[in-house]
Design brief:
two-stranded antiparallel sheet; about 475 residues; disordered C terminus; disordered N terminus; about 5% strand; mainly alpha
Length: about 475
């Protein structure tokens, strides 16, 4: 996402030497933060569902674990934008990171073999996940605004390029190490201690990240006399939704997220519970998708530059509906890794194209915040509906399909959800893509000049990126 512009100022004098030194120091500290926070990302996001399965969570509870944090996370982003008009940005960022660290401590405690009350650990896990995602979404908009002020535009591409590579590598290898840790602890019969150790590593990573964030310099102070109320933010989002092209695109993206969420949280259930994969096999299978996304992201950027974002979005949306059905044909690990690699390729293009398509729809930075907030909120609500519906649908699937004298046993109820999700994904794609315009906005820069920062891993689409403009701005004449 493009970084917000620095607050306007009437002071045209160059920055003071001590201020420039503090900015340089903050940028160095932010590099360390990227490594520390990526340790947390790699050891938590993809293993939350695996931990819920270890706690014997039902399919309905898996749906709540995915849906509720997503829904509340979108609301916390709106809350963050509102609070940013009254509180210092760094304070909100540090608060969010500190609260997220406490939620990880809660996860670590849940993994320990204490005499927990019967059935209490899964609801507590859902509560910790709500705090974990809510705190992240509280800090995220303020972090983007802060970094947009600290990083000079002419250095933005280079700086975020290095930072992104550090974050990507750290997250990926932390994820692999987490899978090996869980696999080893399970083979020794101390699976609960393996999860406790995994979350303890995440506590250390986020704790160090909080320390680094606290040491950063924030040149901006909110003007309390100009703070805007929550109703102003909501009215801005309402105006954004009145734009027909934006509304149709938002409903398409939310519909796709909803239909993906119908099945995506349960692939971990399918691998670990139905196929009896080890944690190492589960990690390798998931890592195949993540690795392909990392590798192909830039190549999709070149294609989007030549063919347009609608072209790339259509290619990705053509493959995404087929993916759940491919899981029905074989239980072989190598085959399923191939399916995951195909999915990673499709999701990399789809994520890139839909991210940049939003900029094409509304390139005016002054109104972009309302557009992004509205899309994020509707998308979070869609994921909530899809994940909850998928959990209940799995619990309602009968043991056999009876039609007159014929009876077909349903070997794996989760297959029904895979088929339903695939059909509904295709319906959503066919509803929007044939009528989607190809948007080209002058001077928006090339897609391959954008820089991507790993935001988190999710069971919905794998890697979630923050998109940061990396192109250089034209030099202005001296004032």
């Amino acid at each position: 996402m493009s970084e917000p512009a620095a607050p306007k100022s009437t002071d045209l004098s160059p920055p003071k030497p001590e201020q420039a030194q503090r900015v340089r120091y903050s940028l160095k500290v932010s590099m360390k933060d990227s490594v520390a926070s990526s340790v947390m990302t790699g050891t938590v996001d993809q293993f939350l569902n695996a931990f819920a399965i270890f706690l014997r969570a039902s399919s309905v509870q898996i749906g709540w674990l995915t849906g509720i944090p997503q829904l509340l996370g979108g609301l916390f982003q709106i809350l963050s934008v509102w609070l940013g008009g009254y509180w210092p940005r760094r304070s909100l960022i540090v608060l969010g990171a500190a609260v997220q660290t406490l939620s990880l401590v809660g996860l670590c405690a849940l993994a320990l073999p204490f005499p927990w009350p019967e059935g209490a650990r899964v609801p507590l896990l859902i509560g910790c996940a709500i705090v974990y995602h809510g705190a992240s979404n509280l800090a995220q908009p303020q972090w983007k605004a802060l970094m947009g002020n600290l990083v000079p535009p002419r250095l933005r591409g280079r700086y975020f390029g290095v930072r992104s590579r550090l974050a990507m590598a750290t997250s990926f290898f932390a994820f692999l190490a987490g899978g090996l840790l869980l696999n080893g602890s399970a083979s020794l019969g101390v699976e609960s201690l393996g999860f406790a150790a995994l979350f303890l590593i995440a506590v250390f990573g986020r704790g160090m990240s909080t320390r680094y964030l606290h040491r950063m310099y924030d040149p901006y102070r909110p003007d309390h006399s100009r703070g805007r109320g929550l109703m102003h933010t909501l009215r801005s989002m309402k105006r954004a939704f009145a734009d027909q092209r934006f509304r149709r695109f938002t409903l398409f993206l939310a519909g796709m997220q909803c239909m993906v969420a119908l099945s995506a949280p349960f692939f971990a259930v399918y691998m670990l519970r139905d196929l009896q994969f080890t944690y190492l096999q589960f990690t390798l299978n998931t890592a195949a998708s993540i690795l392909v996304q990392f590798v192909l992201l830039r190549y999709w950027g070149r294609i989007a530059d030549r063919k347009g974002n609608r072209y790339v979005m259509a290619l990705g949306a053509t493959v995404i509906p087929v993916l759940p059905v491919l899981w029905l044909f074989s239980d072989n690990l190598v085959y399923l890794m191939g399916v995951q690699m195909l999915g990673g390729a499709a999701w990399a293009g789809f994520t890139l194209a839909t991210s940049n398509y939003l900029y094409d729809l509304k390139p005016d930075d002054s109104e972009f915040a309302g557009y992004a907030a509205m899309q994020s909120t509707i998308g979070a609500a869609a994921v909530f509906v899809g994940a909850i519906s998928g959990g209940y649908l799995i619990s309602w699937v009968p043991d056999a399909l009876v039609l007159g004298n014929w009876s077909w046993p349903i070997e794996r109820p989760i297959w029904v959800i895979f088929v339903i999700s695939a059909v509904l994904r295709a319906v959503v794609a066919l509803w929007y893509l044939p009528r989607a315009p190809e948007l080209r906005v002058k001077q928006r820069g090339r897609v391959r000049d954008l820089v991507f920062r790993v935001s988190r891993f999710t069971p919905i689409s794998g890697v979630v990126f923050d998109v940061v403009s990396g192109r250089r701005k034209k030099q202005r004449p001296p004032q």
